[in-house]
């Protein structure tokens, strides 16, 4: 069977937590990389070696940027070495300082990108239905020191862009989107990349679209794009002249080559994710107290995260489900538990931040992210759900 799958789970004695062999001999991961044509990649690599142009805005990076910008129907794509540095550069290029409002329910890089630059991340709560920033909570966190908002399109489902832009305009704040999850997604027909001052992508190996490591900023603002192009290359303009404070945020040529190859197969990856998501939906329906977060299928979606919520009616806890899955080599994740505000250094610096975040706590305590991607098939999805079903039936 696929994925080292070795047994069917029909009764409690079939579960690894009750002493049986694990359902999968190889671990299933949420972030198992999707990899396009090796042959095409090796051809690119050969050409890169022949040219001896390995980095510093080489021809493959430039072509990759054009393709990503076109894919998102946006004017500029500024490719970077990873999503975190792309966030840092975007934040600096926009002149954010003092306090910036972000969700706590996100990957910790969103907060670190601010803290690393001496900016205070102020955590706002989420809407428990969407898991995205609650605009009313954002409003409540605004102070005279607030300079910006970094909203996240969590799980690739777009944030409340219109309300957030209205708040930013009203209070003269900068607004950017951490779109690390939302490559290739749209909101009301407009592609991600076109909201706020700019939007930041991640192409980390675990993202459904990867460049090994990598990231980018998408924007329609010519000046901002130019500033970020300078900033990712130490601020150099020409050989000897530095005209901006910069860092090293450049994407290398082989990363861009991986991106080109993966762009060629992106439709297959999205289709695999969509198929797995529907299989999970179908198999999980009817199980007590568990729900799958849904995608609006009238929009462009990448379906890269399959997010199950464990409610109060469920006969077992979220962590019991995680434990049972891990015993079967299904490495489901509790993303983004316990929320950034409970992680170092934020829990030490802002010990009372949680008081404003009741929905963050509630959601972080009930989420299970399940494996998907091209290394999963429907049979494997069925086995994963059968583990949960037997566990629930046993209680
Ligand atoms: N903003 C948001 C909202 C983000 O989600 C992220 C990144 C960022 C910003 C920052 O972007 P980057 O600077 O990373 O470009 C992972 C990823 O490392 C991280 O990129 C991602 N978000 C986050 C959601 O997930 P971990 O620490 O939970 O997982 P990791 O990297 O240990 O990988 C999980 C499992 O996947 C591994 O145990 C095994 C498997 N795996 C992983 C890699 C790297 C593979 O099979 N092959 C691999 O090459 O953070």
What is the overall silhouette?
A: globular
Beta strand %:
15-25%
Q: What structural category arises from helix and sheet content?
A: alpha/beta
Q: What is the mean predicted local confidence, pLDDT?
A: 97
Small ligands present: ligand T4K
Characterization of this structure:
This protein has 395 residues and is of the alpha/beta class. Helix content is 36%, strand content 15%. It has helices at residues 38-51, 59-71, 83-93, 109-115, 135-141, 161-171, 222-231, 253-264, 266-284, 318-327, 346-349, 358-364, 378-393, and strands at residues 28-29, 76-80, 99-103, 120-124, 146-152, 174-178, 186-187, 190-191, 198-202, 215-219, 236-237, 241-242, 290-292, 306-310, 330-331, 367-370. The chain has a seven-stranded mixed β-sheet, sandwiched between helices. The chain has a three-stranded antiparallel β-sheet with strand order 13-14-16, covered by helices on one side. Helix 4 links the parallel strand 3 and strand 4. It starts with 27 loop residues before the first strand and ends with a helix. The chain binds ligand T4K. Ligand T4K binds next to helix 3 and helix 4.
